[in-house]
């Protein structure tokens, strides 16, 4: 068990994460899904009953009830009574899927973690396809709903989202936001999720140096209940995306972004103002009513503001940075 020892060492600075005691944890965020809960429990149980060791003998199912207003908690509780492998966390109110995953990750005791939505749109049996790349050295495997059974109002925006995110972040996945994923423990211990960042887990993980890949799985239409994410998420998703780009690329060096934009703007502004000053010196007056003057002054001022924003960012960073966030350790051998 040398490897485990090494991983424990690497994970030691991660406070609040339970030590691994099991081979596998399912983490299932639940928000008003009472109809499908017995089904997903049943399916996971039957799949694992004939699954390979060590998972068959050593797994748990963590339901995180994200403030459901239906019978979800009562159902989870009943499942808990019937099956000691079930564990239940109930939130005081609805905090969102990111928070639910976060809580589940902190609570999970498995060496590996599988997240899956409660709605049974994916088949838990596909978990073994997801786990295979983990054995081959990947750290996070995301399910790819290659043929997706959702209404076009969901699939079309999602396609745009995935293409743009893949292109801009360089993480070559087709389906970032699928709830069905397999993780090595180090990944969930390292992830710092807040807001609605669950959509970008593969991006954040890859940015931390984890090896990320995907596996195509089958996807079914929702049988019960309603989708919790409507058109509203588009606008928010767009803002979140800007945030992720910023967090992953420029958090470490704000002046690189703001300074570059600012220098460009201020540079052009200086050129324009210089040109007008020369005209003025050579008697080509008045210049006060030329639109070019307004443009030049505006660019100069905005440019300087960008540069000072970058400097303020650097100051904040200098004062608040956390040494552990500056790197991610794969293993320590000592
Ligand atoms: N979910 C949650 N909290 C929320 C919204 C959703 O825990 O505030 C859960 C939900 O119960 C489901 C998963 O997150 O298990 C994905 O939600 P949904 O199926 O509605 O999303 P979709 O598949 O339609 O994108
Ligand atoms: Mg769903």
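^ structure tokens above, recovered residues below v
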């Amino acid at each position: 068990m040398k490897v485990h020892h090494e991983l424990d060492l690497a994970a030691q600075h991660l406070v609040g994460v339970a030590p691994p005691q099991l081979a596998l944890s399912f983490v299932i965020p639940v928000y008003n899904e009472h109809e499908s809960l017995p089904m997903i429990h049943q399916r996971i149980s039957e799949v694992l009953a004939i699954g390979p060791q060590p998972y068959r003998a050593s797994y748990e199912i963590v339901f995180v009830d994200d403030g459901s207003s239906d019978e979800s908690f009562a159902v989870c509780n009943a499942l808990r009574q019937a099956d000691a492998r079930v564990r239940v966390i109930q939130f005081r109110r609805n905090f969102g899927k990111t928070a639910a995953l976060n809580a589940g990750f902190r609570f999970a005791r498995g060496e590996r973690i599988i997240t899956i939505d409660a709605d049974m749109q994916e088949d838990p049996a596909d978990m073994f396809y997801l786990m295979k790349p983990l054995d081959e050295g990947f750290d996070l495997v995301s399910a790819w709903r290659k043929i997706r059974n959702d209404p076009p109002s969901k699939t079309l925006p999602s396609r745009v989202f995935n293409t743009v995110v893949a292109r801009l972040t360089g993480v070559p996945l087709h389906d970032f936001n699928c709830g069905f994923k397999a993780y090595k423990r180090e990944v969930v211990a390292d992830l710092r999720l807040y807001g609605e960042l669950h959509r970008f887990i593969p991006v954040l993980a890859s940015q931390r140096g984890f090896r990320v890949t995907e596996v195509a799985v089958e996807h079914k239409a929702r049988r019960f209940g309603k989708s919790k994410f409507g058109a509203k998420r588009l606008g928010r998703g767009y803002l979140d995306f800007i945030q992720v780009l910023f967090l992953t690329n420029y958090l470490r060096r704000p002046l690189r972004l703001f300074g570059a934009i600012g220098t460009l703007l201020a540079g052009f502004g200086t050129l324009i103002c210089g040109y007008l000053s020369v005209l003025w010196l050579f008697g080509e007056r008045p210049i006060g009513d030329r639109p070019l003057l307004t443009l030049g002054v505006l660019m100069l001022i905005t440019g300087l503001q960008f540069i000072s924003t970058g400097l303020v960012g650097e100051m904040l960073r200098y004062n608040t940075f956390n040494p552990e966030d500056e790197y991610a350790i794969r293993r320590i051998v000592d």
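Residues 1-15 have pLDDT under 50 and may be disordered.
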